[in-house]
Amino acid sequence: MRLKYFSDKKGFTLIELLIAMLILAIGLMAVAGLQVTAIRGNASAKWVTAATTFAEEKMEKFKSKGFSDSDLTNTDWTTPEPIPGADNFSRQWKITEPAAGNLKLIEVRVIWSAIGVSKQVDISSYVAK
Fold this sequence. Notes:
By secondary structure, this protein is an alpha+beta fold. The protein has one helix spanning 14-63; strands at 81-83, 86-96, 103-114, 117-128. The chain contains one helix and four strands; from the N terminus they run αββββ.
């Protein structure tokens, strides 16, 4: 009787299993890297959303006032004011009246620092007479 050791055997060899595990490990490391990038992107978007909300809040206060209101006089960029309840954020604004005289340009800037980097969001709008 003749024994066939390798020709009758079915299944995976040890080398095939190691190669499959290596490919799986490389794929999982790539997915982990993408996850870290997604987390950083979400954190950055959170800061930008908060800054935009603070800028829009100030803009709405200006727009709710009348065209002739004393708060809407021409100014250069104001000194940054801290935003209550938001430690890293400050905002400033600038109001200019173009030559036509029927419009006022309101610009609001929110500045914040995240991870040692200073960032800002600017919005602008016109108020008509």
